[in-house]
Specification:
The chain is mostly helical and 147 residues long. It is built from seven helices and no strands. The longest helix is centred in the N-terminal third of the chain and has 20 residues, at 5-24. It is globular and about 55 Å long.
C-alpha cells in the first residue's frame, strides 16, 4: 500500500477522514506518545489555528534554533511526507517459523504490526509470547521496537 503514490494518497485520505470524524465528536487524536510526525499537521483541527500559532510562539521563545523536535508540533512535516516503503527491501533472516499468512516472509509479518497492542493478548490467537510471560510492555514487539 505505501509503495505507490495511490497507496500513500489513500492512506492520507483515510487519516484525514478519521481525524475529521474524531474532531466531530470532540475527541482527541493524541495518544500516549503525543502527536509527533503522524498527527502534527492535524493539530489545527483539534486546537484551532490561534492555539497552534501560540505553540509556535512559545517554541520560538524557548528554542529559537528549532533544535528540539523539529518538524513535529510546530511547523510539522506533512503527515504523508515521510510515509513510504519505496526502496525498502529488508533482509529475510532464516527463521524456525514459516509465516504462511505472509507468504513465508518474516519481514512481511513484521510489517503487519501497526503498534495497536493486539499482540498483548492473554488468550490464544494473536499474541506476543514474551509479553504473555512478563506482562511488561517493553517485552512486547512494539516495546522492543520503540514504537
Amino acid at each position: 500500500m505505501l509503495r505507490t503514490d495511490a497507496g500513500i494518497a489513500g492512506s492520507r485520505s483515510f487519516v484525514e477522514e478519521a481525524a475529521g470524524l474524531v474532531a466531530s465528536y470532540g475527541g482527541s487524536r493524541s495518544g500516549e506518545h503525543g502527536d509527533g510526525q503522524s498527527r502534527g499537521e492535524l493539530l489545527p483541527m483539534m486546537f484551532g489555528d490561534e492555539i497552534v500559532r501560540a505553540f509556535g510562539e512559545l517554541k520560538a521563545a524557548f528554542d529559537p534554533g528549532n533544535r528540539m523536535n523539529p518538524g513535529k508540533v510546530v511547523a510539522p512535516y506533512r503527515l504523508d511526507e515521510n510515509l513510504t516503503l519505496r526502496g525498502w527491501f529488508p533482509r529475510e533472516p532464516v527463521t524456525f517459523f514459516s509465516y504462511p499468512q505472509d507468504g513465508g516472509s518474516f519481514a512481511g509479518a513484521a510489517a503487519r504490526c501497526v503498534g495497536v497492542g493486539k499482540c498483548r493478548g492473554q488468550q490464544g490467537g494473536i499474541m506476543c509470547p514474551s509479553y504473555r510471560v512478563t506482562h511488561e510492555e517493553e517485552h512486547a514487539t512494539r516495546g522492543r521496537a520503540g514504537c
